[in-house]
Write a structure and sequence with these properties.
This protein has 16 helices and 18 strands. Helix 2 packs across helix 3 and helix 10 crosses helix 14. It folds into two domains: 238 residues, Glycogen Phosphorylase B (Rossmann fold, 3-Layer(aba) Sandwich); 209 residues, 3-Layer(aba) Sandwich (Rossmann fold), CATH 3.40.50. The protein has a ten-stranded mixed beta sheet, with helices on both faces. It is α/β, with parallel strands linked by helices and 458 residues long. The protein binds adenosine-5'-diphosphate and 6-O-phosphono-alpha-D-glucopyranose. Adenosine-5'-diphosphate binds next to helix 1, strand 13, strand 14 and helix 13. GO terms for molecular function: alpha,alpha-trehalose-phosphate synthase (UDP-forming) activity; trehalose-phosphatase activity.
């Protein structure tokens, strides 16, 4: 049997998450931020999990997208999603900033769920369809799908970093994962380094020959590995922040914070790769040393709940909440807390207003595939004010060279850079922001998707 979708996105998650019986809300994370606008402008279907265990739903339409749910049992949520995806691959691919767990039980679940996604994609794809598989949770899908449907074009994009060989080689299932990816016609990475790590590993582990970024397989097929840095919907954000109610809300936020001289902002999923601990440590030390005074600066840290049953995430939440309490307890005054911490998700408009209210945007991950928050901040600052402090270890640092770049492991360096960003004269901020905006405006998410899909189809 053949399906009817000539364009298919296959991702672990659907763009919406279940809240209560009948309501949906946008799923967390950068993948959805980037792919949703691309999908809304094309005909096709999105195949993925609803975020709830044991739920079997029929395909449905939502917000201009056709969605095809793939069910996961509660055991699969534990072993495939929380386990192999987020306790094995996620830490390993992010420079082992937390120790990865290697377990055969988790691997078996990963393989079984990838097989289910491949079968669902094979059923939904029309003859000759373009199928675009997303991210680390589904690295076996390209080869599984190719076996079932040799007629379709298969693209794969990895949203997170692809690690250097020395780390990847730890994986007991390294050969299977490389072979899984080689089922695709085109494998996309965030940075050129990810693509070359992958090509080198294929040569070394599988003995295939390669010419630049082309991998030549024994069966005569060629697979291309290339970098396509992902981006945001610049136009949509740029328009949104020009609306009077968003501008008014930004002013209101500053007033609610007590109109401090400096508002610093962090917006992240509460993930140990995001460098929240070191960022708050640096900020706290500025108070301890008297370089900042209560009432003079407020740090707003928005931390979206994420992967809340995975051990490392439970530990991180406890650490951060203790740290926030300590800094506020030691350096705050009545009505003047140095940190406003929120463990919540916000709507797009509130987030945009927060970006406009912030003088200094702190994006300091220890490792990040791209980091779309950095690009969203830039897209929201048509007033050319505001400073972006950006980790050298985020993919975005390749493009956003006029940001205040920092090494997130260097607490003193971060303190110096935060002070420099707070004290920079308006003409300096304007010069940097103008150049950052030029980059994001001309390299938005539509360009990213068009470049990838054109290369895939050619
Ligand atoms: P990741 O994909 O690792 O979460 P990114 O920075 O690439 O990191 O993407 C995060 C996305 O999630 C951005 O689009 C950002 O706006 C959104 N986001 C992060 N925190 C929140 C929050 N508290 N409320 C709503 N959206 C959020
Ligand atoms: C990152 C990953 C995505 C993931 C998102 C949210 O952006 O690259 O694949 O969907 O984080 O994480 P979650 O585990 O909630 O899907």
């Amino acid at each position: 049997m053949r399906g009817t979708s000539s364009f298919l996105i296959v991702a672990n998650r659907l763009p919406v998450d279940r809240v209560g019986e009948k309501q949906w809300r946008r799923s967390p994370g950068g993948l959805v931020t980037a792919i949703a606008p691309v999908m809304q402008r094309r005909d096709g279907a999105w195949l993925g999990w609803t975020g709830a265990a044991g739920e079997e739903l029929k395909p449905f339409d939502h917000d201009g997208m056709h969605l095809i749910p793939v069910p996961l049992s509660s055991m699969e949520v534990e072993f495939y999603y929380e386990g192999f995806s987020n306790a094995t691959l996620w830490p390993l691919y992010h420079d082992v900033v937390a120790p990865p767990i290697y377990s055969r039980v988790l691997w078996d679940a990963y393989r079984a769920v990838n097989d289910r996604f491949a079968r669902a994609a094979a059923d939904a794809a029309a003859p000759g369809a373009v199928v675009w598989v997303q991210d680390y949770q589904l690295q076996l899908v390209p080869s599984m799908l190719r076996k079932l449907r040799p007629d379709v074009k298969i693209g794969f994009f990895l949203h997170i970093p692809f690690p250097p060989g020395e780390l990847f080689m730890q994986l007991p299932w390294r050969v299977e994962l490389l072979e899984g990816l080689l089922g695709a016609d085109l494998v996309g990475f965030q940075r050129p380094g990810g693509a070359s790590n992958f090509v080198r590993l294929c040569r070394k582990m599988l003995g295939v020959s390669t010419v630049k970024n082309d991998i030549q397989l024994d069966n005569g097929r060629t697979v291309r590995a290339e970098a396509y840095p992902i981006s945001v919907d610049f136009g949509e954000l740029d328009q949104l922040v020009r609306e009077s109610h968003v501008m008014a809300r930004a002013k209101e936020i500053r007033a609610e914070l007590g109109d401090p001289e400096h508002v610093l902002l962090g917006v992240d999923r509460l993930d140990y790769t995001k460098g929240i601990r070191a960022r708050l440590k640096a900020y706290g030390e500025l108070f301890a040393e008297g370089r900042l005074k209560p009432g003079e600066a407020v740090f707003v840290q928005v931390a979206t709940p994420t992967r809340e049953r995975v051990e490392e995430y439970i530990r991180l939440r406890n650490d951060i909440e203790l740290q926030v309490g300590r800094i506020n307890g030691e350096y705050g005054e009545i009505g003047r807390a140095p940190i406003t911490y929120m463990h919540q998700s916000f709507g797009r408009e509130e987030l945009a207003a927060l970006y406009c209210a912030a003088d200094v945007m702190m994006v300091t991950p220890l490792r990040d595939g791209m980091n779309l928050v950095a690009k969203e901040y830039v897209a929201c600052r048509h007033d050319l004010r505001g400073a972006l402090v950006l980790s050298e270890f985020a993919g975005a640092a390749d493009e956003l060279k006029q940001a205040y770049l920092v090494n997130p492991y260097d607490v003193d360096g971060m303190k110096r850079t935060m002070m420099a960003a707070m004290q920079a004269p308006p003409h300096e901020l304007g010069r940097r922001m103008r150049s950052l905006r030029r980059r994001v405006a001309t390299h938005d998410v539509d360009r990213w998707a068009n470049e990838f899909l054109t290369a895939l189809e050619s």
